[in-house]
Amino acid sequence: MDKLKTPTLIKKGAEASLYLSLWHDRKVILKKRLPKKYRPNALDTQIRIFRTIHEPQLMHEARKAGVPTPTIFMVDVKNATIIMEFIDGIQVKQMLTEISPRERQGLCLEIGKLIGKLHGNSIIHGDLTTSNMIMNSEGRIFFVDFGLGERSSETEARGVDLHLMKRALHSTHCGFAEKCFDSVVEGYSETLGLEEARMVLSKAKEIERRGRYVEERTA
Amino acid sequence: MARKKPCGTYSLGIESTADDFSIGISAFDGEILANITDAYIPFEGGIHPREAARHHAEVSGRVLEEAFRKSGTKPRELSIIAFSQGPGLGPCLRTGATVARALASYLNIPLIGVNHCIAHIEIGKLKTEAVDPITLYVSGGNTIVAAFSAGRYRVFGETLDIALGNCLDVFAREAGLHQEKGLPFGAVIEKLALDGKELVPLPYTVKGMDLSLSGLLTAAVNIFRKRDHRIEDLCYSIQETAFSMVTEVTERALAHTEKEEVLLTGGVAANKRLQSMIETIAEEHDARFAVVPSQFATDNGAMVAWTGILAFKHGMVTPIDRSFVRLKWRLEEVEIPWIS
Question: Domain A89-218 maps to which CATH number in 3.40.190.290, 3.40.228.10, 1.10.510.10, 2.40.30.110?
Answer without folding.
Answer: 1.10.510.10
